[in-house]
Amino acid sequence: xxxxxxxxxxxxxxxxxxxxxxxxxxxxxxxxxxxxxxxxxxxxxxxxxxxxxxxxxxxxxxxxxxxxxxxxxxxxxxxxxxxxxxxxxxxxxxxxxxxxxxxxxxxxxxxxxxxxxxxxxxxxxxxxxxxxxxxxxxxxxxxxxxxxxxxxxxxxxxxxxxxxxxxxxxxxxxxxxxxxxxxxxxxxxxxxxxxxxxxxxxxxxxxxxxxxxxxxxxxxxxxxxxxxxxxxxxxxxxxxxxxxxxxxxxxxxxxxxxxxxxxxxxxxxxxxxxxxxxxxxxxxxxxxxxxxxxxxxxxxxxxxxxxxxxxxxxxxxxxxxxxxxxxxxxxxxxxxxxxxxxxxxxxxxxxxxxxxxxxxxxxxxxxxxxxxxxxxxxxxxxxxxxxxxxxxxxxxxxxxxxxxxxxxxxxxxxxxxxxxxxxxxxxxxxxxxxxxxxxxxxxxxxxxxxxxxxxxxxxxxxxxxxxxxxxxxxxxxxxxxxxxxxxxxxxxxxxxxxxxxxxxxxxxxxxxxxxxxxxxxxxxxxxxxxxxxxxxxxxxxxxxxxxxxxxxxxxxxxxxxxxxxxxxxxxxxxxxxxxxxxxxxxxxxxxxxxxxxxxxxxxxxxxxxxxxxxxxxxxxxxxxxxxxxxxxxxxxxxx
Length: 639
Prior knowledge:
This protein is 42% helix and 11% strand. It is an alpha/beta fold. The strands form 4 sheets. The protein has an 8-stranded parallel β-sheet. Strands 14-13-15-16-17 form a 5-stranded parallel β-sheet, with helices on both faces. Helix 4 crosses helix 5 (161-172) and helix 11 (283-303) crosses helix 14. The longest helix has 23 residues, at 395-417.
């Protein structure tokens, strides 16, 4: 009989009830929510406390203050790992031996074998192989000297059955105990479908082939996981955290149905799958996502009639490709360090940290070393793995985990209502949902409410660009096109594109900073404007300010600039801005900007070509300059 999962009507997070040992029974304690709120308002010195509340792309509120009184979710467990919702992990002992440190390598790279051996000798505990050969002989050449029973080699998600069979054959030829192999074969046709829109056959037929292979592998190698349910494909397309997790859950259910339909128990079927999630620069949201993933997966197993306590799921974390930047690429080290820390604190079983230069092409040996050592330092020197669920008991993280689990569960049920993630892709419904979130994210990037250090904030126009060998051309896409592929979207690409178009202008634009008044008067807005224009590749002049309109116009005339931006205080604007704007135009300024909100200065609206202010769309504000100087139009959507 075909297997059908039944979903609980309520959502993950609802089955958790208060630990009696953690109750607020001490009547002497005065740290109630009102007292904390009063203290916070005092520290804000008149600013509205509620203005500190923000929302994620999933419309989850992030409050400025969390307490047990207001945010402790009801629990029916004692708050220990290995119990009930499994938010705190599947094992009561935690992950005290540390997570698996994986390094990713491209099999076709010259010297791949030497790089793999160097990583394993220097602290990596596993390898992910991308583009693995389909023959055992070629694969053996890439992995020469690697002890597969000691250092697992995992195939990247989206690998095909020929690649998987080649790796299994290598393991078969090894004399080690069959139970010692713990590889992942990376079989995930849904990732291939999403990335390319193509499949070599019908999805149902491919699933049957993979299911048959999974049974064969399980007979000989019970600890090898054949199947991946990968989430980075969705995060790379601009998905929210809930959308990514929901799609991963739907992929997992797809394989649970396929495996159990052939007679495999739900617990054993769960053991054939590895979930993959992206780890981003938002530390707390990433921690919450990994905790929420375990909660939701446990709910699926329970609703399917299985025992979540013995249906242990492995979760692999890969640092987000979407967050990586080409501009000021060294900042990527900070991003990946934060992401790695968050994934480890959230309980990831294995982690891959992308080298900081991975977007520029083939990574250098030093970049690979830095990526590896990031994990080694966090694991061995900070002793991060020694603390079981570091976020447990933080009402912020607990509440965020619950809210993210509920949001993901709702989207997951919507995907299942469409027939599952495969049908949602083929119909185009899922691509449409992702596009809505991607557009919202692009708006946040454009107005810098989602700042990107080194790109949209604090750019360095004189940076030395990374020079790396290009990545090999991707393999030709075979098979029938079944759907539109999801786009690859790096957050920084709109600003990088506009920077690139600025650099291509023969007559490089220079923004004259019409700073009015002394340094104390204009420096705040002048600094803001300089940062904004240079994020778009527009260089700015510098000066100590002008005490009169005549001195400002004289300096502009000598600068040979064609564009100018007026910067000062509101008081100075009321005195001089109108006169300076008119005089700049008469002196030859083709575009005049002002650092300030047009709503506050309506009398200047007809005299100013553009206003730059906190929350404005920077890409739109810069469009006039690029058009005037003949820069090519940039693509804001794709990397």
